[in-house]
Write a structure and sequence with these properties.
Number of domains: 2
Helix content: 25-40%
Largest sheet: 6 strands, mixed
Number of helices: 15
CATH architecture of the largest domain: 4-Layer Sandwich
Strand order of the largest sheet: 4-3-2-1-13-14
CATH superfamily of the largest domain: Metallo-dependent phosphatases
Oligomer: single chain
Structural class: alpha/beta
Distance between the termini: 84 Å
CATH class of the largest domain: Alpha Beta
CATH topology of the largest domain: Purple Acid Phosphatase, chain A, domain 2
Number of strands: 29
Length: about 550
């Protein structure tokens, strides 16, 4: 009997039965009648440092142990973006999370785009520290020097009695733009990591090559561990499109989109059924794939599990205690405070240039390599003190966890953004303790300077949703100049294309009504988090000293 075809014919039927079972059971726990030799593959994705949120790693470890009481064939895998997302990951550059994954008992993982956020050298260290194997079939190093992540394997074969399962790792080709592009380059600025993204065909062909190779090596089943995303926005490299353009894959366990998919059926290149599943994010679910002795395959999600493994729970507590100490670690010093307001406590960051605004905007520009950076004053929430500055201080400045984005933009779009952010500015910024003309969308800037003439009445128009709809008259923003590499300034060219860095909130999500960049080409899509970026800028660009920001830089003049 052709075992692979035997089990494939049952997948559609199994998915329907599974959906009914999960609906009745509430996706709670493994059924009591699980057979002794069933293969159980537990999976997670996009945990993003949520070590004790929802089920948490202690709950996952306990559930894994429960499964191991029923069958010796239990494997735990992760589909990417585990080590980044909260300050716990930032302060340890992912090490705490790897330690915790080791304790939980992971066997395999793939590289999500945010595994790259701490740089290749650190990623190589994390991979070496892991007791589990990282898999990735579509990451090719083309540089001349040593590859820090050369421990990456395209796939691995796992024996369960007489059955062999292949796990093939696939990372999104968009990793370069959704992490930090310079980490994928050599010192000369040349890209030295290739994700087989020269065309969709090259990508599909690459994955198919390793699927075929694993089958030839004896795999009875092939499971893709992917960090691709299932929506149209991930085209042409989505998990759905990969399934449709390959064959001999049985199941795809996916990440990246934060989708919650218990069990979808997608047709492959030959019209055969492939199961697709994804757990959401933050360990809100545990994924469970079961291969029975007679070849039936099912996937489902466990949405609640109250038991906790004591060892893992204690480990989490110890890490968090250490973390509480580490966020007090001094990361910078300054001979002056960087303030959101004036000496009288009046908030200025939403209507005037400020020292902390200059610092934050410079961080976005330096880390991204953009021509210009724009940061909303409403996104800067605290001062930085004189003297020692800690991780906790940085987190207070940028508590949102927004991601770095960089887009191409015309000079006209940049001018419109400046005008939009300046529409309420008044000639005086305060009346007593009250700030005047302030708005959360007021822009702190880097890489340019300009003037706001408050004698010119704003003619900015917005739509019914308070989104930017145009400027109908004279601009109150004038004399806009862009910083050159040699330190000089040149007038903003309305027809020229520049690169602009900001948060995903402003560039992609229409934050504060900024919609002028939403359809533009993204060069960095989901880069490092905002507070991580401040930390990197301080340590890598400023040498741990913020004294350069003792006064404002003269970027925004108001008359």
């Amino acid at each position: 009997m052709d075992f692979r075809n035997f089990q494939k014919k049952r997948q559609c039927f199994l998915a329907v039965i599974l959906a009914a079972v999960l609906l009745l059971s509430g996706c709670r726990v493994l059924k009591e009648d699980a057979k002794a030799n069933d293969i159980i593959i537990l999976y997670t994705n996009d945990v993003h440092c949520a070590v004790d949120g929802d089920i948490g790693y202690a709950g996952l470890a306990a559930y894994k142990q429960r499964c191991e009481q029923k069958t010796p064939y239990v494997t735990l895998v992760d589909c990417g973006d585990a080590v980044q997302g909260e300050l716990l990951g930032t302060v340890s550059e992912g090490e705490y999370i790897i330690d915790l994954m080791n304790v939980t008992g992971y066997d395999y993982a793939v590289l999500g785009n945010h595994e790259f956020d701490y740089g290749m050298e650190q990623l190589g260290y994390l991979m070496d520290s892991a007791d589990f194997s990282y898999l990735g079939c579509n990451i090719n190093y083309t540089g001349s020097g040593e590859n820090p992540i050369d421990a990456l394997k395209p796939y691995s074969l796992e024996k369960y009695g007489e059955t062999t399962v292949a796990f093939v790792g696939v990372s999104t080709p968009y990793s370069i733009t959704t992490s930090t592009p310079k980490y994928f380059m050599d010192e000369s600025g040349n890209l030295v990591y290739d994700f087989y993204n020269s065309s969709a065909k090259d990508f599909y062909t690459c994955v198919q090559k390793y699927v075929d190779e694993s089958v030839k090596a004896g795999a009875d089943y092939v499971i893709l561990l992917s960090h691709l995303g299932d929506g149209e926005e991930y085209s042409p490299y989505s998990s759905v499109q990969l399934i449709a353009n390959t064959k001999n894959v049985d199941v795809v366990l996916d990440g990246h989109a934060h989708s919650t998919i218990s069990s979808d059926i997608v047709k492959n290149q030959e019209g055969k059924d492939v199961l697709l599943s994804s757990t959401g994010t933050g360990l809100e679910n545990i994924g469970q794939l079961v291969i029975t002795q007679n070849g039936m395959i099912s996937t489902g999600l466990i949405s609640s599990y109250e038991n906790k493994d004591d060892q893992t729970k204690e480990f989490v507590s110890n890490i968090k205690a250490t973390y509480e100490e580490e966020i007090k670690e001094v990361v910078a010093v300054s001979d002056t405070s960087l303030s959101c307001g004036d000496e009288n406590g009046v908030r200025m960051v939403r209507n005037r240039e400020t020292t902390i605004g200059d610092f934050c905007a410079d961080a976005y520009r330096a880390v991204s390599g953009a021509d210009i950076a724009l940061v909303q004053g409403g996104g800067i929430r605290a001062d930085l003190p004189k003297g020692d500055i800690t991780y906790a201080d940085l987190l207070a400045v940028h508590p949102w966890g927004n991601s770095l984005c960089m887009a191409e933009a015309s000079g006209k779009e940049i001018l419109d953004a400046l005008e939009f952010g300046s529409r309420y500015v008044e000639s005086e910024y305060a009346s007593g303790q009250d700030a005047l003309g302030e708005i959360g969308g007021f822009l702190q800037v880097s890489g340019l300077r300009f003037c706001i003439d408050t004698a010119v009445q704003s003619t900015v128009k917005t739509d019914e949703n308070e989104m930017f709809a145009g400027v109908t008259g004279a601009y109150r923003v004038s004399n806009v100049e862009v910083l050159n590499a040699d330190g000089s300034y040149s007038p903003l060219n309305l027809e020229k294309t520049y690169t602009v860095a900001s948060t995903d909130y402003l560039i992609k999500d229409y934050g504060d009504g900024y919609n002028m960049f939403a359809d533009n080409t993204l060069l960095i899509d989901e880069g490092m988090t905002d507070y991580q970026m401040l930390s990197n800028y301080i340590q890598e660009n400023l040498g741990g000293n913020l004294s350069a920001y003792s006064s404002i830089q003269g970027r925004i003049q108001v008359k």
